[in-house]
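A further point concerns the way the authors explain their paired sequence and structure data. Nothing conveys this as quickly as seeing an actual entry. An entry of this sort, consisting of the sequence and the corresponding backbone structure tokens, reads as follows:
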Amino acid sequence: MTQEVTRRFYEDVLVGGDLDALDEIATADYQEHDPLPGQGEGLKGLKDRVTMLKEGLAVRFTIEDVIQADDKLVVRWTNSGTHVGEFLGIPPTNKNFSVAGIDIYRLEDGKLAEHWHVIDQLAMLQQLGLIPSPEGADA
């Protein structure tokens, strides 16, 4: 079940844009511990988050590792995308990016119920040209 939930969330929902699949793989009271500005709560909030990512960043996730222990699911991923639309109030740069991240989910009855994450936001902002890279970093 873990592998199926993971595949559906990253491939079908985040990459494919199938928001309806969230009704089957996430709980109605899904809890996000690092919401995006403007993201609602619960399952609707998760759908908001996915929509913001898809419309603003044209995300393409690659799953590197999946680890499960008890009711926790850890996913290490790489996200390559293009800033194609407004994201968090920032107009599109049409620049590409590739960043690594780790998501931790708490599962409840085989569904995503809670989420925490760590992402290299600095690298993403530098790649999009929104903040300067340190001198000599391009060498």
